[in-house]
């Protein structure tokens, strides 16, 4: 008999994780798939679109009825968690109390407090398995296999999507450039160093259509998880940096908001009502067309690792490509080119957990959770292809 999968919060991105599972599996792996969401109408719309007889829908509200959510999830083998970043502490606790394996998109850090609990029940929770974190971590694992010693790990991404096509996406925007965010760090010479927004600009040579883009340090989980993984395998690097960019129009807006102090999200009074400025801006952009459109859509990862093999210095580069968003490939048009990239890896991870191809129990960092070749293989079957180049270099000053 197959396993039972519970999909928690099937919005745009997690909806594509579910599409991946629905397309690539049959009853022998998952005999039942349940979408649990507070938005039952949206969940039923997704169910009707997929036309998969294994799928049903239940209403779940983890914020206002955590106990009820736990009862509805009990008895399932695996939870694929698509809730937003700010809810991942709650959602991970719900998954643990329901006694399930789990995987989510974000991996921002609230999940790891429950690691011992998952170990006690012999279950795995993989925090953060979308594009970044997720595919980036698999690429770091791949590079680590090719080098005896590692000096530098630079993880970069271009996420070309509208600035506020959903409330959770604008929440991510606000979080990553919050001046007070303690997670905006680099790992350098054995210690973590906090840096401000727009720190350490570097030109990243991404493939077409993205091209060379200026990117900046962002507060992503890979700074911690890559360090943990590489130390565990005896290849602690001197430097780990994680950078990112959105469409350049978006970046100009965020930089202006930062320079004006607006990214601090201070409280102010308007017509006698107390408001937070970034919350108001997010609502405005979410309600306007400008918040829902961009010039082109998609995702690009670029990972550079510098190290040694057999006494020689090498540069290992991993990047990925996907079908164009211009409508030439059905299913990849417009925003789909972004959300398919982010959602597909979590679907791949869910498949691997169900197949018994995950590693360890507790909250397992994405670099360790799966064999990178398995992840790349599943994603390539959907149109997301990982590329690798290598060259010998004279020194690390590159």
Write up what this structure looks like.
Strands 7, 8, 9, 10, 11, 12, 15, 16 and 18 form a nine-stranded mixed sheet that branches. Helix 1 links the parallel strand 1 and strand 2. The protein folds into two domains: 125 residues, Rossmann fold, CATH 3.40.50.720; 215 residues, 2-Layer Sandwich (Dihydrodipicolinate Reductase, domain 2). 34% of the residues lie in helices and 27% in strands. The protein has 13 helices and 18 strands. It is of the alpha/beta class and 398 residues long. The model has no long low-confidence stretch (mean pLDDT 95).
Structural class: alpha/beta
Low-confidence stretches: none
Mean model confidence by pLDDT: 95
Outline type = globular
Q: Give the helix tally.
A: 13
Number of domains: 2
CATH fold topology of the largest domain: Dihydrodipicolinate Reductase, domain 2
- So what's the oligomer here? single chain
Helical residues, percent: 25-40%
- The CATH H-level superfamily of the largest domain is Dihydrodipicolinate Reductase, domain 2
End-to-end separation: 53 Å
State the total count of DSSP E strands.
18
Largest sheet: 9 strands, mixed
Measured by DSSP, the beta-strand proportion falls in 25-35%
Under the CATH scheme, which architecture of the largest domain would be assigned? 2-Layer Sandwich
Secondary-structure topology with pairs:
Blueprint: E1 3-8, H1 12-24, E2 30-37, H2 40-50, E3 55-59, H3 66-73, E4 78-81, H4 88-98, E5 101-104, H5 115-120, E6 124-126, H6 135-144, E7 149-160, H7 167-176, E8 185-188, E9 191-194, E10 202-205, E11 212-217, H8 222-232, E12 239-245, H9 248-259, E13 267-270, E14 273-276, H10 277-287, E15 298-309, E16 312-321, H11 336-354, E17 362-363, H12 366-369, H13 372-380, E18 385-392
Parallel strand pairs: 1-2, 1-4, 2-3, 4-5, 5-6, 6-17, 7-12
Antiparallel strand pairs: 7-15, 8-9, 8-12, 10-11, 11-12, 13-14, 15-16, 16-18
Helix pairs in contact: 1-11, 3-4, 6-8, 6-13, 7-10, 11-13
